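Discussion board: Methods & Data

I've been asked by a reviewer to show the raw model output for two of the constructs in my manuscript, not just the figures. I'm not sure how much to include, so I'm pasting the format here to get opinions. Each protein appears as its amino acid sequence followed by a line of discrete structure tokens. Is this the kind of thing reviewers expect to see in a supplement, or should I convert it first? Here is construct A:
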Amino acid sequence: MSVGLINAALRMTGLGSRFLLAIFMARYMTLADIGTFALMAGAAGLLPSVAGLGLNFFLARRLVGIGHAEAVGLARERLRVSILAGACCMSILLALSNSGHLSLPISPWLAVAILMLELLGFDLQVALLARSRSTFANVLLFLRNGAWVLPFMVAAFVQPMCRSIEVLAWFWLCGLALSHGLLALHYRRDLMAMLKTGGGVAQDGFVASVGAGTAKIYLSDLGLAGSVYLDRFIISAIEDVRSAGIYFFYASIINSAYIICLAATVQVYQPQLRAAWLSGGVTGLRIALRTRFRTTVIVGLVSLLAAAPAAWIAARISGKPEILDAIEIVPLLLAAYAFKLLSDFMNLAFAASERDGQYAVFNIAGLILGVAGCLVAIPLLGIIGAAVAALASALILFGLRYIAWKRMEVRVLAIGRSS
């Protein structure tokens, strides 16, 4: 639990910075700026799934319980694929921008630098978490997402001309550079081994070994990311970017509490549950799930309930009546993220027990439920509809995952007793 508390503290520090950034932008910048930043953050969040090709799921599984040199070899091959896939995505982005089919709020090359570093940072974080280096992974995440916020706010407060998305993006890039620099310094020997042709233990068969299973996991990853980030794009398309800014203002605060819970529970439990499955099968996994589920519920309730007054205070401080008028979405989002946390926890059971088909189906179902809910509810209820859709999707998905796990548990145990 001490590791979970450390991770929660690290995430709380970084997310506290994002909380202050949301208030600062609401106070000194425009709702359109908040909406634009939400779309930029959404693009950075979607790219690892789009360019990831579903490989991080298998990478996280393979990295558990192997030697360090073999892990370095796996990471090296994974990064090769990431760089190639990311370069393809960035080429498309630049082509669309240069042809006038895509209007970017910042310089195209600045966007490319941010997106590529975010992509690599995500892949490396997956590897660190799988190797039970969650504390160091969250230190790096803080540098990428939180450390640059205070310097930006100071600069923008002192110099009003810095209150722009372009300047914010440059500070964001500096945070990414600092994070990757620390990672390279800490693992400098492994980095040199990865750069050498024969360094580490060769894992050139990793991509081929996952085979056809990659396709369904790729769709699953798209479903996971899409269910988190697509709502802001849908709101912007149906309503406008200002509405997306209002929704993101509240969602980012409550999402911060959710991520703290995730860092203290699900991220820590992922390799533990995999190890429980490997050593004890369904029985071992069932015991591990039962004890950790209670902790997840307690941590989730405490963190999410604390987010309610924080959201109200932030809305009051913002000085924008449009934000305060939409305060009723807060209870809906709190309930949505509570069930989302429990649903994510149950999803670990399928990942740990190699039920890849169920893992993928439920993640894709989450995307379908979320998008369909938004498309139906937003035209009827505005941004309130997005919150209603988020709650309905999370509740249904948690119920489906829980029922599926209990059925699998009963079936496997029954087979074991009969044999």
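Construct B, same format:
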Amino acid sequence: MANYDFKSLYDFLTQTPEQGLRKMLVDPKGLNDVYFGLMMKVVRAGGEAEFVACASKETFPKIKMGPAEQKIKEVFWKECFKALQSRGLLSPANKVA
């Protein structure tokens, strides 16, 4: 998996009003309401470090997931990364020398 700038993504997701994020990201053919809701649960579950760790390892923090969220758990990160990249919100991390 490529290295992405998850810190900047976390900052954007926490500093942008949820209604604006929903308008920008939710799309019936891509990131639907279930994906968006699960992404926001992951963002709210812990701090920046936990979000970065979960996203980079494609894991989840300890959160309650409903039946719909359980169904998408396996493909969640891949679909989120694809949707976020297509909207220019997720970019590769800068190489550190």
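Answer (T.O., handling editor elsewhere):
This is acceptable in a supplement if you add a one-line summary per construct. For B, something like: The chain has a mean pLDDT of 89.
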